[in-house]
Amino acid sequence: MSEFDVVVIGGGPGGYVCAAECAKLGKKTALIEKSDLGGTCLNRGCIPTKSLLHAAELYSEISRGEEFGVQAENIFIDFAKLKDKKNDVIVTLRSGVEAMLKAAKVSVIKGEGFVLESGKVLVKALDGSEATISCNDIVVATGSVPARPPIPGLELPGVMTSDDILENVPALKSIVIIGGGVIGLEFATLYSELGAKVTVIEGLPKILATMDKDISQSLTVQMKKHGLEIVTDALVGKVEQADDGLRCIYAVKGEVKEAVGEAVLVAVGRRVELNKVFAEGFMPECERGRAVVNEQMLSSIPHVYVIGDAAAGYPQLAHAASAQGVVAACAIAGAVSKINLNLVPGCVYTSPEIASVGLTEAEAKEQGISIHVGKVPTTANGKSILTNQERGFVKVLADDSGKIVGAQLFSARATDMVGEFALAINSGMNEVDALSIIRPHPTFEEMLGEALAVCVQKGAKKKK
């Protein structure tokens, strides 16, 4: 039996950050990971997806080079090299994680971790051997796996999850995507830019249902403009083999329809499997399969923390998991953390990009907060025009006191700019102070100032 101060189960962006932070705070720490360090985000999620999306963006820009006087011939996608580059990126970043944990003196244990009771973790090694580790505190950061709804035909060859696509990177001429959330729409963007016919089938009334309605509507328009078929309010009944691939049978308002593609991607969210981590009778309080935690990420079981996708009440995002890892580590070490877990930016790497932080207009209305909105189109921005970007917008929300409470961006580099609004909201900045910052020209960032200017004007009119 080995003894540690802290045992972290799961080496994803929540687990490895938490382990490193615990070690830095003076705790003897072990990190248990059954597969590759970096978890879903680095190996089967954020990083490989964005690597492929970057390649697709390059291909799309080169294909449209004639608009800028750039002539190119015989442009094509080498899917083998595309996959190799994706793998190179993963290996490079994974090596960085390994080096960081080694420098922090974290003991990395290859195997599967299983919480037996307070202070006791069973490790099932890859060679089949077992050992028990004792500790003071346990952090569960085991992430999630792609969900598969009970739809007949999903067992057929050619029906894939995001894990399958990122592992194989198949060349496809057509694809049907079940699910119009973040994962589904990023893959829709990827394959559309690579020239495939894409059909997205969503069960709710709109795609990106949890985001601002202007974003959902604008993205729907853009995608349809580029030839993607977007079907909402649709109930998928089954998937069956077809002569030219797979046939997805679905119904819209009782009318039965079908979509055919070489492959079907199931992207209806992710599920947590805490029953595979906790011993029977030792499961923490859960909400819809995810552990209920307090503001320090502590579960209902003393000295057992749960972070990342498995924690209820938080978005399933890598950067949220990393922040939660720091918060949990500080709680364990008795240190102070100033991270605001209630303010998590949401990002979608479609074309254009999408980023959101704080309240949407609908959420402000639900909470009874009176707001005014500053919104500007990207068509007035010099950098957007000279780079021939798609039509989009930047929107900022402020309450009656002028304090910024939310922002939504639908533009190029939105994910790189949303942090400015996150900082403003977190620090309680008002619209006038935020507008006082001089932003460089020509940049996409100028739109933030322009949206703030409109917001200030509307706020002034409201007070008259």
Task: Note the total helix count.
Answer: 13
| Mean model confidence by pLDDT | 96
Low-confidence parts: none
Q: Total strand count, please? A: 24
Cα gyration radius (Å)? 24 Å
Q: How large is the share of residues in beta strands?
A: 25-35%
Distance between the termini: 72 Å
Largest sheet: 7 strands, mixed
Shape call: globular
Oligomer state equals single chain
Backbone structural class: alpha/beta
Helix content: 25-40%
Written overview of the protein:
There is one protein chain. This protein is of the alpha/beta class. It has helices spanning 15-24, 39-44, 46-63, 79-103, 162-168, 182-193, 213-225, 318-333, 361-366, 382-386, 414-426, 431-435, 446-463; strands spanning 2-9, 29-33, 107-110, 112-117, 120-124, 130-140, 145-146, 159-160, 174-178, 197-201, 229-231, 234-242, 245-252, 255-261, 263-266, 270-271, 286-287, 290-291, 304-306, 346-348, 353-358, 371-377, 393-399, 404-411. The strands form six sheets. Strands 1, 2, 3, 4, 5, 6 and 19 form a seven-stranded mixed beta sheet that branches. Strands 8-15-9-10-11 form a five-stranded parallel beta sheet. Strands 20-21-24-23-22 form a five-stranded antiparallel beta sheet, with helices on both faces. Strand 23 and strand 24 (404-411) form a beta hairpin. The longest helix is centred in the first third of the chain and has 25 residues, at 79-103. The termini are far apart. The mean pLDDT is 96.
